[in-house]
Every structure is written in C-alpha cells, then in structure tokens.
Amino acid sequence: KAPVLIVNLWLGFPYMFIVSTGALQSIPGDILEASRIDGASAWRTFTKIKLPLLMVPLAPLLISSFAFNFNNFVLIYMLTLGGPRFTDTSLDVGATDILISMVYKVAFSGAGRDYGLASAFSVIIFIIVGVISWLGFRQTKALEEVN
Q: Which helix (H) or strand (E) holds 89?
C-alpha cells in the first residue's frame, strides 16, 4: 500500500502546491500587517487569518481531489493490479484494491463475471462520492461568508 500512496502523493503534490501558494499570495498584506501590529503570534495569524482565507479557494479543490482519488482506477491497476489477492473471499479482490478497481474485477475478470453486482457497487460509489461532495460544497458555501 505504501508505494501506491507515495506515487499518488508524488502525482498530486505539484498541483496542490501551486494552487496553495497562489492562494497564499492572494491574501492582502494589510491584513497580515494588522495582525502583526495587534501582536498576534505566527500560529494565531495562521489559524485565525490565513487558514480561513485559504479554505475558500482550496475547499473546492480538496473536494474534487477526493472525488478523483476515490475513483483513481488507473493508479491501482498500473502499479499492483489490486494485489496481493485475499484468499478468504470468493471475489477477486486484493489488499490495494479500491472500490472502483474491485468493480472492474467483479465485472470483467475471472469466470464469474457479475455485471449486476458491479452495477450495484457503481451506484453505491456514485452515492458516496455525491453525498460527500454535496456536503463539502455546502460547507464551501458557508466558507464564502469569510470574505
């Protein structure tokens, strides 16, 4: 599992870094200067000023990143094929499988191709990603009041 996580971090870090540094640079300097004049520590400035202002542009990015990683079939398939396989189950699933790679295996590999079960799993994945995205975007709308 560690190599999959390391590769995923390696692939996603540059984009997140660029967007985060751009958002940090967009924070007005007079707000930070006012916090310094008021005697706020670096930690207090970060938690009370920078972080709330960063969450407005970064929250949609984090939500879309979650949805992408939740369905990141290519990374699992290219690195490990979902293996090593669990021997105590009738399905062809392994230790590094995520839901979408398990759906692929249930639908298209082995002798027991079960399109109905794969379709049910796909609907469940859609509902999970949809609900979490909806909750995240609702929270993002509440964050917009910070500005």
A: none
